[in-house]
């Protein structure tokens, strides 16, 4: 709870009014049962019309005032609660942005979405509601006990007989409930993960006539979720219902003993009525406080699931003492760089230097570390050994925002948002005007494509750019790079979806722009590698050749291809 309440503390001032209103409302509620004693003993038995009218008016006034206070405090709590929820999600979202691409390859997107959405909502609910409910219920419980003692001490002791058993039942079931809640959350996230993957791969499933198999898998996962949910519900009802039944035995004992004392003339009817009213209302805060155990168990599971994200180490950190880099020339150097992933060396002792303004091709078979090299150069991750330098500075000493302004990678499968063409381009340059956007599209050969769109720049491209071809998505990513205007550009198979003719046209059109910056061409294609005067060959995570492109290509053999679409 301490971990969850840290999100509540910044709002303690705004929550103070909610607490005060809640306490006033509780005090008004405590006064209502006592009016029943006056109603019975003085108004009804005493046949006093004036007291009757006064008592009825008191009931109405207390009820109305309590309603107003509950509405005001409820609306204020809802607003604060929404702010707390966003703060929690924002912290997780910010941390996710610091994690390396490798972490996301190990974690299903459905699991991430479930924790950011459902689990954080549950933590927020419990953190805020428990804090407020505990105060209100504790005050109501203490007030009710005081009133019960004032009315009749012996009746009060009789009503306590069933309390120890009720408390034992609550604690016993809470321990079992905690594990069941965790199972429900995992099953629910599994269903979400399956749906996301199925929706993204719907075309593939239909192509392979896998509709029935996917439905069967969906049914299997949903059945697992329903089974876990039903088991949790059974435990929830037992953890809340059984203590209530046991407490009801205490109430029955009060009615029996109190009724006998009324018959024998020891207490008045009004006293028994008022005592019974307080006794019945006493069940609510007791059960509510017992129910807090179930809520805390649920929140504990959610906290542990969210903590798995927040505890994931960020591989890339902002420097403690950043180095100022007012201007970037584009000189890149790797000095004895090693990177290990899943206990396997992806890069092992790579050393190379690329001068500012130089264009270099990096080639090699799949899995030799080319894309990892790109991730290191843009600081999506950092090497476990060695140093990556930009203009002679260790990149770990440069502010991330400054560094990523100068260094950019365009990948083979670029991401396109479900947004307009303009919005997708302005990811790279938020302030760019429409003329700049059009120039960037024309430079990468998308000017004619733009003219065919129904709403031009305002045309929505669909989720992940499904309304576009692979080649169009790649050229859109190149247009983003033009708008971002980096000094070092890494093209990681960035034109692999284009046919050779279109690829040559695009790269030729970009030649002047590319010549003004340092460019690394990561490719399998011989024609693309030939555009660079220098070629570096990677093999098994090491540099095995580095020299003039014509000579290196002559020795490269089958690792390079002339076929369209090879990647």
Describe this structure in words.
The chain has 567 residues and is of the alpha/beta class. It contains 20 helices and 10 strands. A 6-stranded mixed sheet has the order 6-7-8-3-9-10, sandwiched between helices. A hairpin with a 2-residue loop joins strand 1 (332-341) and strand 2 (344-354). Helix 3 (49-96) runs antiparallel to helix 5 and helix 5 (109-151) runs antiparallel to helix 7 (163-200). The longest helix has 53 residues, at 211-263. It starts with a helix and ends in an 11-residue tail after the last helix. Residues 562-567 have low confidence and may be disordered.
- Mean pLDDT reading: 82
Taken in chain order, the helices and strands follow as HHHHHHHHHHEEEHEEHEHHHHEHHEHEEH
User: What fraction of residues sit in β-strands?
Assistant: 5-15%
User: pLDDT under 50 segments (min length 5)?
Assistant: 562-567
Count of alpha/pi helices: 20
Task: Write down the overall geometry.
Answer: elongated
Query: Main sheet?
Result: 6 strands, mixed
| Largest sheet, spatial ordering of strands | 6-7-8-3-9-10
What level of helicity do the residues show? 55-70%
Termini separation? 50 Å
**Global Rg:** 35 Å
Q: Total strand count, please?
A: 10
Helix/strand/pairing class, anyone? alpha/beta
Topology:
Layout: H1 2-5, H2 12-44, H3 49-96, H4 101-106, H5 109-151, H6 153-159, H7 163-200, H8 202-207, H9 211-263, H10 269-310, E1 332-341, E2 344-354, E3 359-363, H11 370-377, E4 385-390, E5 393-394, H12 400-406, E6 407-410, H13 421-425, H14 434-443, H15 447-452, H16 470-484, E7 488-492, H17 500-509, H18 511-514, E8 518-522, H19 526-529, E9 534-539, E10 542-548, H20 549-556
Parallel strand pairs: 3-8, 3-9, 6-7, 7-8
Antiparallel strand pairs: 1-2, 1-4, 4-5, 9-10
